Amino acid sequence: xxxxxYRTAGGVTTGLLEGxxxxxxxxxxxVELLTSDPDERLARAQQARGPGVPLSEVxxxxxVEQPGKYLALGFNFADHVAEQPDMTNQTVVDLYETVRLTxxxxxxxxxxxxxxxxxxxxxxxxxxxxxxxxxxxxxYEGELVIVIGRHGRRLSAEQALSIVGGYTVTNDISVRDWxxxxxxxxxxxxxxxxxxxxxxxxxxxxxxxEDLGIRTWINGELRQSSSTAAMxxxxxxxxxxxxxVCSLQPGDLIATGTPGGIGTPTANWLKVGDVMRxxxxxxxxxxxxxxxxxxxxxxxxxEEWSLGRS
Length: 310
Prior knowledge:
- There is one protein chain.
- The protein has seven helices and 19 strands.
- By secondary structure, the protein is of the alpha+beta class.
- It has two domains: 2-61, SH3 type barrels, CATH 2.30.30; 70-304, Alpha-Beta Complex (Fumarylacetoacetate hydrolase, domain 2).
- It starts with a strand and ends in an 18-residue tail after the last strand.
């Protein structure tokens, strides 16, 4: 089942995506449906299902509204860890020296690299992304996102998948100088609009995670191409590990890490006008254009965006 949220004249509605049509599920939320088991979810969706409208006629918003947490993994693909920086570029040299010193300061971590993106960064799957006025080091990271469907804490790897409600796509957009200005990294991960997600949530029962393609294009050029099979920690291990620390709640998001091919090693930063497309096989693609940040913090009226908090 593919679940979406979309804007209508009356507000934002939950919908069921089937092919090129969206069917309204009045009175239901995406997260509410994810808490149900597959049979119950299907029955509730069928009961609430309204008439279909062409997907081309609706504006999709972020499919998860106001998650309690937006967590993310770093360095979860070996080819990303192994990317070789351009040591002739002083900006790149300085960034990687900061990374080296941070790892040296924490030589034996108990946990994988986990950080949070503030939930205010979330925006819709086709919304504009702001180029900060105080940094040009804007980078992309195509990723699979876990959407939690049920409460869980202190879960084993064998138990972990039982609380996963579904999966979606993100571009973990990163402002690299702000990111590496602090060991926690979250400031550079949390600028407004730097967390586009969508286009839908595919329920966990409808997706086989063994070998899903993950690809990112910038202006039509393929920059990242990998698969969930190349993840260092799989979904069960990620959920289990995080649940040892904090309770996971319905609607929480966990981005699972990005493959190699990001812009940082060569300082190939994003520019205003660049079009970023991230696709995860079996879920779909999001596409966002980089726009200049205006003097008021926005380049287009905020009310015109499909923000997750709408």
